[in-house]
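User: Good morning. I'm curious how NDP would be positioned relative to this chain. Could you predict the structure with it bound?
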Amino acid sequence: TKVLLTGGSGFIAAHILEQLLAKGHSVVTTVRTEDKAAKIREAYADKSAAGELQTVVVPDIARLDAFDDVVKIPGIEVVLHTASPFHFKISDPKKDLVDPAVIGTTGILKAIARSAPAVRRVVVTSSFAAILDEPKISNPATVFSEASWNPVTIDDIYRSSATAYRASKTLAERAAWAFVAAPPADSVAKFDLVTVNPPMVFGPVAHHLASLDGLNTSNERFLDLLRGKWKAGGVPSTGAAMIWVDVRDVAAAHVRAGLELPAAGGKRLFTTAGSYSNAAIVDIVRRNFPADAAILPSDDQLGPGKLPPADQRFKVDNAATTELLGIDWIPFEKTVVDTIKSLKEHGA
Ligand code: NDP
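Assistant: Good morning! Here's the predicted structure, ligand included:
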């Protein structure tokens, strides 16, 4: 099957690309620069030479016409749209986060409807950010599930960069569902939508990193730990999300949702293995990497990294997603160990 994967240079997308190619699918992937395109082609030189991997430069997804040409590549049946900013180095939350997320998503859907007749399914990488509701996080009566929606609006984006990011994902996902609920009358493509909604995604790095400082946002905490920042400055708070998933499971969810599970159409997939804490990361590293003991924080520094007690935090119900995907979520210890090993291989 021919698949269009946007943002192929990303942390999650690199794992999706690897799994798609391993399964024999042919992939067109978009990246922002020719330099990134060349790195991907080098990593899969054989597939690239065989025409099973094609790269296309799409410099700015915040332009409504960004994807107009790439979707015209004949034979694309499935689109996996992962490209969207996930970082907090912003000066203008609308321009830097919301526009690329929302315009990128509506732009690609419009382009498909206009000129990609073979597309039958679109998977959009959304987020737990589009599920959670900030004031409900510390309420134990809260159960976040596939049915939950973040009520955030565009007016909230100047509150904090975290809220702005959550709004970017929520508004993009809402726009995607609104589009498929009322597709343009002259649409040439008949496709359905699936969203994948992961919380914090951790795991080994498969994408090209020019330097460790360009590491994706969710893995940064492991780098900070390895660089001794937690020992020097204390273990940071685990953060409001408090739930996680392994990147290889998130990638598998995209592949299954896009290509292998017709029944996923119209569903939001809440991909999570459950709760985690920064204190638990320290414990796992201590047990598995005894040679690194000197850089680890002491037990009396763990406090802020522990989870609040269960009666002060939300619950999760993602049984529908687990069942639909038929997935055994990778356990936290394996993810932490594999992430640390991977970062060390990259020079951490
Ligand atoms: P990365 O930062 O590694 O990947 C983001 C991808 O989007 C990259 O390919 C990046 O391109 C591209 N991108 C970002 N901003 C723009 C822009 N303005 N124009 C064009 N392309 C852009 O992070 P992840 O792999 O983690 O993120 C992938 C997706 O997963 C995103 O949609 C994110 O919101 C979502 N997600 C991630 C979670 C996590 O914990 N990691 C949790 C929940 C959802 P480039 O390589 O050139 O920077």
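The mean pLDDT is 97. The pocket of NDP is lined by residues 7, 9-13, 31-32, 36, 60-62, 82-86, 100, 125, 127, 169, 198, 200-201, 216, 218 (CB under 6 Å).
Let me know if you'd like a different ligand tried.
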